[in-house]
Every structure is written in structure tokens, then in C-alpha cells.
What does this fold into?
Amino acid sequence: MSTRELYVGPVSPYGRAVRIVLAEKGLEYEHGGVFPGYDMSPTNQVPALIEDGQVIWDSGAIIEYLMSRYPNIPPVSSHVPFADTLVRPDHELSDKLTLTTLLTLGTCLTNLFQFRDAFPSYEDHPYLGRCIERAGNIIAWCETQLDSETNGFFPGSVSVADVRLASLLAFVESGYVEFDWRSYAGPKMSSMVARLEARPSFVEFPIPLKEPAA
Ligand SMILES: N[C@@H](CCC(=O)N[C@@H](CS)C(=O)NCC(=O)O)C(=O)O
It folds into this structure.
């Protein structure tokens, strides 16, 4: 049996996505904490996973590794099944574009988070203003890519892209970024978020609410 140790930031949407994928696959791991992870990779970032001594960093690389190494998923009670591939073989390019676009959404939101207190408002800084605009465009585009009000990006299963998007929106909802994503989204995204947040793997790993500044 493999040994596994995970390092994640406590409020990280990237870390949450990795933990949800591990939970969906029924994979156990030791929780390594946060700070040692910063020295583990050339990026000095978490999440980082150590499996059987091999360090894997970056949530995208970790999730891709888990999806290809552990394709068979134990069924999760009566819930919609978790997708067994990162991208659907017959939609490879469009699914990859969705994942790449969600990475850009993550970058926009984490930039806004990092510079939250540095400017009176995001619009006062040209780059942060563009991050807001870009994030809004991406949310609106994702709404067009969701299958229906009862499915996420893939009909009939919960995809990694669903997990990515919902984790990023939870980061906003928990107060880390001032961004009214609902004004760019529509009914498909709102119902997907509500559905996923009730799923056991999401309930197990919430993003804690931002504590008010002292
Ligand atoms: N592209 C990376 C981004 C990871 C990231 O931004 N990690 C943050 C925590 S949420 C971090 O380690 N920040 C510490 C730093 O940048 O010094 C991924 O997907 O894993």
C-alpha cells in the first residue's frame, strides 16, 4: 500500500480541490500541515503531495496524477458518480480548455486576495481591475459550458472541472475576495454549487470563513 502525505494551505481553494479528489477516490493520507510544504517544491507553494517518497506539487499536476493513477473509484452512496477521467476522451480539447481557463480564474482570484488590502478598491489598480473583468468573463463563459441545471460540465458525473470551479467560488463565498460572482453566473452554476456543497466530500473539506480583521 502506498504512503501518502499532503501539505495544503488551510483556506486554499487549490488544496481543497486536491482533498476532494482524494476523498472521492477513497484515498487516505497523513496531513503534513502547511509550512514544510513551502520548501518542498521549486515553486515554494502548497499543495504538495508526497506519495511513496515522490514529491508532486501544483494542484493541477497532483490531480492529474491521481486521476490517471487511481482510475477506479469506489461508488459514493446514492450520489452522482465522480468522473473516472480528467477529460472525456471524446471532448479532450474542450475539457482541457475548461481546466486551463479555470486555472486562470484561480490566478485572478488569488491575485485579488493577495492585494486585497493594498488598494482602496480593486478598480483603483489597472491590473486588479483586469483580474475582476477576466474573472467575470470566465464565470459567464463557464455558465455557457455547464450542461444543465442538474449537471455540471459533464452530464451524469461530477468532474474535476466542477470541483475546481466550486472550490474557487467557495473561496470567494468565504470572504477572501470581494467579487460578486453571482452577477456573472446563471442558474446552472448556482445550482451546481448548491448541489456540490451538499456532497459528502465537499462538506468534509469546507473553506473556513475569513476571520474579521482585528
Ligand atoms: N498553481 C498552484 C497555486 C498554488 C498556490 O497559489 N498556493 C498558495 C496557497 S493557496 C501558496 O502556496 N502560497 C504561498 C506563496 O506563494 O508564498 C497550484 O495550483 O497548486
